[in-house]
Write a structure and sequence with these properties.
Strand order of the largest sheet: 1-2
Mean pLDDT: 78
Largest sheet: 2 strands, antiparallel
Shape: elongated
Low-confidence stretches: none
Strand content: 5-15%
Distance between the termini: 50 Å
Length: about 55
């Protein structure tokens, strides 16, 4: 499967997390794609910028 999606074996735990990731939608848990490190970093930077704006306001 990793060859098909062109991911190295080292990223197996990221692409297919052992326990998966769940979120609630209409009361039923469903699987959600795990965010990439880049997406997490962008989200964190956005939160930091929002905090800085709040402090300077």
């Amino acid at each position: 499967m990793l060859e098909i999606i062109r991911e190295p074996p080292e990223r197996l735990h990221i692409v297919f997390p052992p326990d998966g990731v769940e979120f609630r939608r209409r009361g039923r848990p469903q699987k959600e794609r795990q965010k990439s490190p880049k997406e997490l970093l962008i989200e964190a930077l956005g939160l930091m910028e929002a905090e800085e704006r709040k402090e300077t306001a």
